[in-house]
Write a structure and sequence with these properties.
This protein is mainly alpha-helical and about 230 residues long. The protein folds into 2 domains: about 90 residues, no CATH class; about 110 residues, no CATH class. It is built from 9 helices and 6 strands; from the N terminus they run H-H-H-H-H-E-E-E-E-H-E-E-H-H-H. The strands form 3 sheets. It has a two-stranded antiparallel sheet. Strands 3-4 form a two-stranded antiparallel sheet.
Length: about 230
Amino acid sequence: MSHYQGSTPETRRAPDWRDNAACLEEKPELFFPKGYEGPWQSVIEDAKAVCRRCPSKDACLEFALGEDIGDGIFGGLTDKERAGLRRQAARRNLTAEDVAEKAAKTLQPRTLQSIYDAHTRRLYGGHVAWSGPRKVSFQGKTLTPKQLCYIVGRGHRPDGPVRSDCGIDACVLPQHLADTAERAYCGTRPGYQRHRRNGEDACPPCRQANTDADNRLRRTGSTKAAA
């Protein structure tokens, strides 16, 4: 981002990377969002999209890091991301090549999978917890963490509210989530079979229902419960 507002000498500067910056064709406000969450996430992603196609993004980022610029999006990174990069560089004694590699990874297009990867952490027993914002804006839509994680796992939007069915309400592992349509099957042998067809871990009620059906089959020759 080349719209730097710092003090400049009166004399005209020599041509440099700023003359070819893609952001010269954009409004400066795009690169100075007033927040990081909610609708500002979309603004940030739009600004980063400009940076991705910019031939000067590496020089722009180097400039922002070298001048310790605190505000705005430069070289495809927000001020928070640049601050994190500086801390990592200082703590781990990173080389310039290491910094460039980490910056390139940060600049990758934002996807639901990348949001999931950035804001989840493993818990005991294979469960997963959400550590990000309470709401996520993506492509003009606002999602709850469980809705986002459900879509990551299923590839489609949920039907109705999404809830954990593993006994840990905070868990957002896609295989442990169910929407209204899926919950209608849960606690039944068909529900267990549906989990298996989808390549998912069956929820506890479905596992129990399948076990009960197997026991009935051994005792009575039928999986159906007595009326």
